[in-house]
Design goal:
By secondary structure, the chain is an alpha/beta fold. The chain has one domain (3-250): Alpha/Beta hydrolase fold, catalytic domain (Rossmann fold). It has eight helices and ten strands. It has helices at residues 49-57, 80-83, 86-101, 117-130, 169-175, 181-184, 204-212, 232-250; strands at residues 3-12, 15-24, 33-39, 64-68, 106-115, 135-142, 159-160, 163-164, 190-195, 217-222. An eight-stranded mixed sheet has the order 1-2-4-3-5-6-9-10, with helices on both faces. It has a two-stranded antiparallel sheet with strand order 7-8. The two termini are 18 Å apart.
């Protein structure tokens, strides 16, 4: 199936956010087109691996997909160090949903996807999204931290914007200090992926999400799986199960 790609822009707290909307061409002008919106990880972007996978996989199965750069990342405006926080990223995400709801033919039934901190963003945004007169029909979370204090191997020496720049510990203590345990209790239709050997976000987070979220829900644990889901076998399971989940919840 052919897929249309459209560069899009919207604002979140007066910050310009840029993304790409992928739609199945045969469905581009029909009503009630379900759309999934994705949120990338801490130092990721709309071009992160899982975002690219879903931008192809979902439209090929009559589901639209929006991927975008959070403020301070990729092509979006903003300052990474000063603007990055779970509430700020949730605001980006909520405004992405508002953008989608303005599209002619878009369904008010929305699917959401988050990887790593992107999953935390989805959890943070959930309650506000439920109040927007939309149906959150399906949610997929990968390697998602519920409590920031559980995060291991803090990336204090990563590259930002292709320049070597250390992330100060204060960034994690102030900007990324969160506990989303209570917010999970309102969530439903959640599919959870997590690697049992995740070196960044301990697997206890996946068990917390599964235990506290409402039915229907499902958890898939990758034996020896790492934070990035680098195993091709695990990637294939991710693709198959994610498509199956969104088909079941969006149609």
């Amino acid at each position: 199936m052919k897929i249309s790609e459209k560069n899009i822009e919207f604002y979140a707290d007066n910050i310009l956010i840029k993304g790409v909307l992928h739609l199945p061409i045969l469905q581009a002008k029909t009503k009630n087109l379900p759309i999934v919106i994705g949120s990338h990880g801490l130092e990721g972007s709309k071009d992160s691996a899982k975002q690219i996978i879903l931008s192809k996989l979902l439209p090929q199965n009559n589901i639209g997909f929006l991927r975008f750069d959070h403020r301070g990342c990729g092509e979006s405006k903003g300052d990474f160090l000063n603007d990055t926080s779970v509430p700020n990223r949730a605001s980006d995400f909520i405004n992405a949903v508002r953008y989608i709801l303005q599209i002619e033919g878009a369904d008010r039934k929305i699917g959401i996807f988050g990887s790593s901190l992107g999953g935390s963003t989805c959890i943070e945004a959930w309650d506000t999204l439920k109040q927007m007169d939309i149906e959150l029909a399906g949610c997929v979370l990968c390697a998602t931290p519920v409590k920031s204090r559980t995060i291991e191997n803090i990336p204090v020496h990563e590259q930002l914007d292709n320049h070597q720049q250390a992330l100060p510990m204060s960034f994690f203590l102030e900007n990324l200090n969160f506990d989303l345990s209570e917010k999970i209790k309102k969530m439903t239709h959640v599919l959870i992926f997590h690697g049992q050997a995740d070196e960044v976000v301990p697997i206890e987070n996946a068990h917390t999400i599964y235990k506290n979220s409402k039915d229907p829900k499902k958890i898939i644990l990758f034996k020896d799986g790492d934070h990035q889901t680098s195993s091709r076998k695990d990637q294939e399971i991710f693709e198959k199960e994610t498509l199956k989940w969104f088909k079941a919840t969006l149609f």
